[in-house]
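Progress report, Aim 2. The chain analyzed during this reporting quarter is listed below.
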Amino acid sequence: MNEPARFPCAQCGADLRYDPGAQSLLCDHCGHSQPATLVEPEHAGVAAEELREIDFHKALSDEIAGADVETTQTVSCENCGATVEFDENVHAAECPFCATPVVTDTGSHRHFKPGGVLPFAVAEKDAQKALRTWLESRWFAPSGLRVFARSGRRMSGVYMPYWTFDAQTQTRYEGQRGDVYYVEQTRWVMRDGRRVRTRVRVPKVRWTPVRGRLQRFFDDVLVPASRSLPKRMIDRLSSWDLHALEPYRPDFLAGFRAEAYTVDLQEGFAAARAIMDLQIRRDVRFAIGGDKQRISSVRSQLSEETFKHILLPVWVAAYRYRDQSYRVIVNGRTGEVIGERPWSVWKIALAGAGAAVLAAALLYLAAIAGVFSR
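Predicted structure tokens for the chain:
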């Protein structure tokens, strides 16, 4: 079982953490800073890996090198299903995704090692500022939530797991191309109260059978490998600069948590295949051309399928309000905020009452104006 990577401070020996603002390792104890790229983990055997693709079919057959697999200590949340890596000495914690207290024995999780990581670029203080700005624009949010945001409560920096898939595709298709043309017809219409005849142009479609071949190489089709967040939030959390992926190094994770994937490789590939199929149908429509298209068959063959397991950064503020869990996520690269929040019933009622009073006042003024205009 892999030991967790630790990065001791050269001055005081305390654990260093990765500082997104300075892109270096920082000691919170004495303030000492060290370049991340020059620091080696305390234990042996951990080195920066190349950002490379892994053969998908060999992985399914368990024919990949043991260096691509590792076992880590994890804690699972029974409320939201998140599986988060923790230090092996941690047996009680709060889930970063739903704020549910987690008191359980640590378990182990054997998985593909991350091949790439997008390091945090947004510091915690900037994420907190973005959270406050987001909440201030939500007038119907409960006042208690605003207090939560202003309290400066620490946010959890978490690396979320994703899959990326590459594949070469060859597609045969059959269908029909529709070209619009116009014919003139005589019709009866009503004009100035009279029924008259007129000539109109009527659109028609000429359909022509077509068939063909096309190919497309898919690069880094991104699929979430976690179920800890609702799909509506995951779908919005899509602004990732994957071209900036770095080969995985443990020092990027110093001071942060990493969520273990719960969507396995085969399920992730099925989701990626659905994304590919949707794009291929768009390609087929473009290849058929014309004004309209009918697709009768699409047969695609895939080759050179590869994948990467990567980690993407988010700041998470999870809080409980009236026994319900709510989450606000800040993209650790862009600062974009995506969140859930409860609605303040009294604020909504107050706004409704205010609108009713305003409407009544406008009606009253309109009535007065009508009397004086006579």
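The two ends are 91 Å apart (CA to CA). Helices lie at 56-60, 124-136, 143-150, 231-236, 265-288, 345-372. These observations will guide the mutagenesis work planned for the next reporting period.
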